[in-house]
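From the pipeline queue, job 12 of 40. The input is one protein chain; the requested action is below.

Action: predict structure.
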Amino acid sequence: MGLDEFVQKIEGGWVDVDVIIATPSVMPKIGKLGKVLGPRNLMPNPKTGTVTNDVANAINDVKGGKIAFKVDKVGIIHASIGRVSFAPEKIAENSQEFLNAIIKAKPSTAKGTYLKGISMASSMSPGIAIDTKAFVH
């Protein structure tokens, strides 16, 4: 809905959204917004389920608390658990839920220590070390 208006707003610098979900047919129009959306991790991507023909299901997943994260080459997980506008309780709840999801994702064949260290930081701040023994794994 309102694709052309949103494309113009985003080209003008507006990115006040959490998730952008698109169908494959509109990706050529959204593709030109890569320079704006890419650095903010807002670019729709089939791997993350944000480019799909089943938009209603994708919206329900996102509203239901779907957690998207990236893992780099050395096994460090990068994820967003909140925004500055969130209440501290909400960020704490989101971080606990995220860590629970990571622990649940441990393959049954994985041996040894699964979480070697936990550190959380805002985008432009040093990390705060968290005691891994506080989490069951």
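Job complete. The first strand starts at residue 69 and ends at 71.
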